[in-house]
């Protein structure tokens, strides 16, 4: 999963429909085999055929399939002979498999009054149709006509999708939106090279890629996994329509003729990436050995279940540490403050509550979310960090019954120590440094108190003006303040916020955020706090005397 990203949803149900299950590749070729397939399909589907109703499955004379499923079934009961003003709604959403693009189930809008079917977010791909009892004439944007005969009222994408229709040249090209692009190049008749491009420093750069991607993966997986600077920087792309690709957790890219940058040359960029990252195998067979493509029924994303081999050290502020030890059988042993705590299986996880996490269940029954790169982490002074994080459902307690919290941030750049070791180390360093370190601490304290930005040193206790409730602020380290907000119903919320404001308001207020739903503003003019959140915590808070 890629780090630097905001949550992305193309629309409820769109992603589901875009990646519906696909049938096994059909090796048959030619009109005869297509006709045979159509006859077999007719036997597998419901034999009910309703005349003058577009809902269902159709076959052309040469065995190609058109199938459509009306999601808004109310429009099927509308009397089109009535005047427009009183007949009701005639347009709605549908799923469809088209005879000229039979490898992909697509999401579209249909208008029964206009006899048109338009692909989602792609106004250039518009079909029209004429229906006469069981016969339907479908016309694509290139004015190519398909004479179809209805064989069933049933719609079943698994049965009608024909993977043999997909060729590399059909999907090769550039899919672009803003500063992001996916380029798909034909490698040979059975495979593709796929590049994730980002516009940086006045040109497009390859930030992830996958080579020798089998054409079957488009059908079977519905998504393509790519890797960036290492195997843990994983991303995916998948088709929404034949001309639109979804960038995992970003947005959808529309197929364009070409990138317009004069100095853009994908072959040279590829050579540079391979030279800079010789330790990475970008071949798709190797990628899929390390990276899972996860489909939770709503979203699709990629995940590396072997993250614990490199992401080994995590901490809870400065008070507790987790160390992970990956074992040959795939078991990951967890050490809490240097002592064995529990374990979990690396490959045994379930999709998380969003596309940025997965859920593990430990041997002792404890559960945790693992975020490969958690966008709401605020343990970096001055800006948001995107470090891997482990978030347990509840606080952990070590052997001495110390509350170790439940949110642990990856600290691979440092070898973590237990609390006892840290204290010993601090004592030794203090003895060695002597008065010089003491003077330094005193200087730091003075600078903190004299800085107007650190108002929380003086004002750390507040009461709520509209009803009961209050705020208590504790400075945990030089980067984070721990805000406890008591709501009107007595419940306490805990927010970790950067000491440095995220932004300044128009009235000179310091603005802080927690997640996406909490905004806290401090007003230096009268030292009050205003909280924008759900009603339970919303309101103004003034300093306690």
Break the fold down into its secondary structure elements and pairings.
Layout: H1 14-18, H2 30-44, E1 56-60, E2 65-70, H3 84-87, E3 91-98, E4 101-111, E5 116-119, E6 126-132, E7 135-139, E8 145-152, H4 157-160, H5 168-171, E9 173-177, E10 180-188, E11 191-200, E12 203-214, H6 216-220, E13 224-227, E14 234-241, E15 244-247, E16 252-256, H7 266-276, H8 284-290, E17 292-295, E18 300-303, E19 313-316, E20 320-326, E21 331-336, E22 339-345, E23 350-351, E24 358-361, E25 367-371, E26 389-392, E27 407-410, H9 419-433, H10 435-450, E28 461-464, E29 470-475, E30 480-486, E31 492-498, E32 503-504, E33 510-514, E34 518-523, E35 528-532, E36 539-543
Antiparallel strand pairs: 1-2, 1-8, 2-3, 3-4, 4-5, 5-6, 6-7, 7-8, 9-10, 9-16, 10-11, 11-12, 13-14, 14-15, 15-16, 17-18, 19-20, 19-27, 20-21, 21-22, 23-24, 24-25, 25-26, 26-27, 28-29, 28-36, 29-30, 30-31, 32-33, 33-34, 34-35, 35-36
Give the class from helix and strand content and strand pairing: alpha+beta
Q: Give the overall shape.
A: globular
Strand order of the largest sheet: 22-21-20-19-27-26-25-24-23
Helical coverage, percent range: 10-25%
CA radius of gyration: 29 Å
Number of strands: 36
Mean pLDDT: 80
Oligomer: single chain
Account of the 3D structure:
The longest helix has 16 residues, at about 435-450. The chain folds into 4 domains: about 25-160, no CATH class; about 165-300, no CATH class; about 305-410, no CATH class; about 455-545, no CATH class. The chain contains 10 helices and 36 strands. By secondary structure, it is of the alpha+beta class. A hairpin with a 6-residue loop joins strand 35 and strand 36 (about 540-545). Strands 22-21-20-19-27-26-25-24-23 form a 9-stranded antiparallel β-sheet, with no helix packed on it. It has a 9-stranded antiparallel β-sheet with strand order 31-30-29-28-36-35-34-33-32, with no helix packed on it. The model is unreliable at about 1-30, about 375-385 and about 415-450 (pLDDT under 50).
